[in-house]
Design brief:
Elements: E1 9-12, E2 18-21, H1 30-42, E3 50-54, E4 62-65
Antiparallel strand pairs: 1-2, 3-4
Length: 68
């Protein structure tokens, strides 16, 4: 994850992971909230199904989408 970018985007990488660039700063959970919204929009899911499972306070995160 790269906060404070010019534009928010998700980019697939060759190893099967995704790189998120976010406009929001990493302050008060703003970048995490933007990441959840971006992932939900990318995969056509409601934000309530997207969660950060690991790494909420770091740059490397594990995000999951549930099938409720």
């Amino acid at each position: 994850m790269k906060p404070n970018a010019r534009a928010s985007a998700l980019e697939p990488l060759a190893d099967g992971t995704w790189l998120a660039t976010l406009k929001a700063p990493p302050v008060d959970g703003k970048a995490n909230a933007e990441l959840i919204a971006l992932v939900a929009r990318q995969f056509g899911q409601p934000k309530s199904r997207v969660s950060i499972r690991r790494g909420a306070s770091g740059r490397l995160k594990r995000v999951t989408i549930t099938d409720d």
